[in-house]
Amino acid sequence: MNHKDPIAILRSHNLRVTDCRIAVLQHFMKTDHALSQGDLEENYSEFDRVTLYRTLQNFLEKGILHRIPDDSGFASYGLCFETCTPDGHHHDHLHFKCSDCGHIQCLEQTHVPKIKLPKQFQVDHIDLIIEGTCSDCQHA
């Protein structure tokens, strides 16, 4: 995915180009951590909750974003890279959640280790979040 041009990304994923989609995608592109719908609502009061929700859902369906479950009960979302398509998300990386600031970051270069389960189980996806303190909070 070309991470520089939000309009090209939307078009390459067969999505209509709208002000909301451009704004949300640019926000993800300039942020170094995962975002929740609440984060977007705080920053984009010109778009209603339903529009933001639908934008996130469209981005999930088209392979632009992936959902990062969290113990808070609210999902966060991170940008997908070359691994995802509208047919499915193919993430094998870890996520790191800072216990101080709460930010979640994708650790793209750190992969989930292979896990062998008994034959009666079929894995659909693995979500692995490591919790600790990020470098910004360690130096604060």
List key phrases describing it.
single chain, 140 residues, alpha+beta, Arc Repressor Mutant, subunit A, three-stranded mixed beta sheet, 5 helices, 31% helix
Brief write-up:
The chain is of the alpha+beta class. It has 5 helices and 6 strands. The strands form 2 sheets. The chain has a 3-stranded antiparallel sheet.
Q: What report would you give on this structure?
A:
This protein is of the alpha+beta class. The chain has a single domain, classed as Orthogonal Bundle (Arc Repressor Mutant, subunit A). It is built from 5 helices and 6 strands. It has helices at residues 6-12, 19-30, 37-43, 49-61, 135-138; strands spanning 35-36, 65-68, 76-79, 93-98, 104-111, 129-132. Strand 2 and strand 3 form a beta hairpin. The chain is globular. 24% of the residues are buried.
Question: Which percent band covers the strand fraction?
Answer: 15-25%
The total beta strand count reads 6
CATH topology: Arc Repressor Mutant, subunit A
Please give the domain count: 1
Could you state the oligomeric state of the chains shown? single chain
Name given to the CATH homologous superfamily: Winged helix-like DNA-binding domain superfamily/Winged helix DNA-binding domain
Alpha plus pi helix count: 5
Low-confidence segments, ≥5 residues, pLDDT <50? none
